[in-house]
Design a protein that fits this description.
Chain lengths: ~150, ~150
DNA sequence: CCTTGTTAGTTACAAAAACAACTAATATCC
DNA sequence: GGATATTAGTTGTTTTTGTAACTAACAAGG
């Protein structure tokens, strides 16, 4: 039906990347969804705060490349759940500093444990060298500095 | 603020995969979105039909792991745009065979051109060996047979 | 045949994302 | 100082997705 061509859909990188990302997200989702009723943006925010410490919504947004409306709503949810506290910056009263509460810290540590396990189980299918190359390439593609 | 730990968010594969996928999607999106007003699922369906020839919605769904409701809506849109025609299977009148119209074929070829270019530009940042490893790993992660 | 079960695809409704418009605080420049 | 522009974050509205329930056609066992 179709003349021969050097294009194959299953080799197209954006397609492959999306399929792989969807698949891996699905595997990890159940941890934060079932156990804490979180959305993807919520755990990303939680992880950023847990991983890097106190931050403003703005900083999380620019680091994780998440739109500010998504952050705003995620922070509202996390605040409802008493996982983060918001304190106004006294020098610039527009922005507020987000910090994990002890409960938020506990959730973060629990999820981090599962994340680490999940990550390890993925890597187990490949050699150490392959995984290193994958990470390096994905960071490059994602626009994250090494 | 946070005790040392061997977990770093920017190394977590589901996170990296999603970031890389989003970034690369964004780059390609403008072609099918601006030029043809398509959604992601629509171009995927179009590409499947262009790449593999006539298929049913079911087949596309299982190949691309897209839920049937998304396929259904994408096919409806593509049909409105006169990019695909639907013909009932006479032996099993539940399913219908989807085929690209000449207009659909033209759109596919045009987008395929851009896809190829885009893919090439991505690969240019890496060595041939790295790209081969990346594709192999992503196919594995996505659950696509080599 | 005729009940029961399965499958292809659609539709309806709820959840989430995208986008635009908004408020309130600060910065700039005259 | 005061008009104007920017910035941090929020809210409202529209699209898009996810999920469940549905229709219509077929299949199988009795």
């Amino acid at each position: 039906m179709n003349e021969k061509d050097d294009f194959a859909l299953q080799d197209f990188l954006p397609y492959l990347l999306n399929r792989a990302a969807e698949e891996s997200s699905l595997g990890f989702q159940k941890h934060y969804k079932n156990r804490y009723g979180m959305l993807r943006t919520e755990w990303r925010v939680l992880f950023h705060l847990g991983n890097y410490g106190q931050m403003t919504a703005k900083e999380i947004g620019s680091r994780a490349k998440i739109h500010k409306t998504k952050i705003s709503r995620a922070v509202a949810k996390l605040s409802e759940k008493r996982f983060v506290t918001r304190t106004r910056d006294e020098n610039d009263r527009r922005s507020e500093h987000l910090t994990l509460t002890p409960a938020g810290e506990a959730a973060y540590k629990d999820l981090r444990e599962h994340a680490l396990e999940f990550d390890t189980s993925i890597c187990a299918r490949f050699t150490t060298g392959e995984v290193a190359i994958l990470r390096y390439m994905l960071r490059n593609l994602a626009g994250i500095e090494p």
